[in-house]
């Protein structure tokens, strides 16, 4: 499912609603971050806390009141069928492993898909008090402050860098990267740890973002197409396939650098065997 450039713009009121809803989710997750909770392992080995589940329930309740006919897919609650053909995708706390270790690098993510494809994307960094939101045909916006609002935001734009050499490239999950991929990029670009990811890309603090290693979930990548595209960039998997239909790796760039990155990583492995490492928890 690709971003459709000539589709009708998404409803502005729906975008406002998404901002308000994710803002409330952010406030709840911040309170939880500084509170007491327990974590447990899910069947896939990933962590979850009561805060993840509570934040998703808050978002689901808001969607149920505003758009009860729409479907919902949430990382914690799974699929709720709808009748409209439209759906919302929730990642209540993207970065639970950071959350459980009291590292302030997590986000609240929400995406909306209609009959034309990706239509709304929201990534909220509540502890940084920065939200990035985009609507198809309405642009991509940075909303600062504890109570983000589209009226007080400013337009997000990617960089105009045209050379891959020393391009500022954030790497996500590098512990799971194979040596070949790491070396190929290290020789050409300026590799940095992922601190803001897509938010840093669309605000000009990074020229590219690469995600490899263990595959992402659909809820992780769902907000990316509309956010990156509306900010002037491009996002695919590392093979150049639609990020929503690919192998759940991610290559997000300012657009100008995209083909050069695809050429650089072409044919390289995407993941290493973490089970062979004794890295503990």
From TrEMBL:
Transmembrane segments: none annotated. It comes from the Bacteria. Mg(2+) 1 binds at residues 75, 91. Mg(2+) 2 binds at residues 93, 220. InterPro entries: Inositol_monophosphatase-like. Keywords: Magnesium, Metal-binding. Its cofactor is Mg(2+). One of its GO terms (biological process) is signal transduction. GO terms for molecular function: inositol monophosphate 1-phosphatase activity; metal ion binding. Gene3D superfamilies: 3.40.190.80, Fructose-1,6-Bisphosphatase, subunit A, domain 1 (3.30.540.10). Coiled coil: none annotated. This is Inositol monophosphatase. It comes from Streptomyces rapamycinicus (strain ATCC 29253 / DSM 41530 / NRRL 5491 / AYB-994) (Streptomyces hygroscopicus (strain ATCC 29253)).
């Amino acid at each position: 499912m690709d971003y459709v450039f000539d589709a009708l713009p998404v409803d502005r009121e729906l975008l406002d609603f998404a901002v308000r809803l994710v803002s409330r989710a952010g406030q709840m997750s911040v309170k939880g971050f500084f509170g007491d909770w327990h974590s447990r392992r899910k069947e896939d080995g990933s962590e979850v806390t009561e805060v993840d589940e509570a934040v998703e329930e808050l978002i689901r309740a808001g969607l149920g009141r505003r758009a009860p006919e729409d479907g919902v897919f949430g990382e914690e609650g799974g699929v709720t069928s709808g009748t409209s053909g439209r759906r919302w995708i929730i990642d209540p706390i993207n970065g639970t492993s950071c959350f459980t270790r009291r590292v302030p690098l997590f986000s609240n993510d929400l995406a909306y898909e209609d009959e034309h494809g990706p239509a709304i994307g929201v990534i909220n960094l509540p502890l940084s008090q920065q939200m990035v939101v985009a609507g198809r045909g309405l642009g991509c916006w940075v909303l600062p402050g504890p109570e983000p609002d589209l009226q007080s935001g400013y337009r997000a734009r990617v960089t105009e860098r045209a050379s891959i050499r020393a391009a500022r490239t954030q790497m996500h999950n590098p512990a799971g990267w194979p040596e070949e991929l790491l070396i190929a990029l290290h020789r050409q670009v300026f590799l940095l740890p992922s601190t803001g990811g897509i938010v840093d890309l669309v605000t000009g603090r990074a020229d590219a973002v690469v995600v490899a290693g263990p595959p992402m979930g659909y809820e992780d990548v769902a907000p990316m197409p509309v956010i990156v595209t509306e900010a002037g960039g491009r996002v695919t998997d590392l093979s150049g396939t639609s990020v929503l239909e690919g192998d759940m790796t991610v290559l997000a760039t300012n657009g100008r650098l995209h083909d050069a990155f695809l050429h650089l990583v072409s044919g390289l492995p995407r993941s290493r065997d973490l089970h062979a490492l004794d890295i503990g928890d």
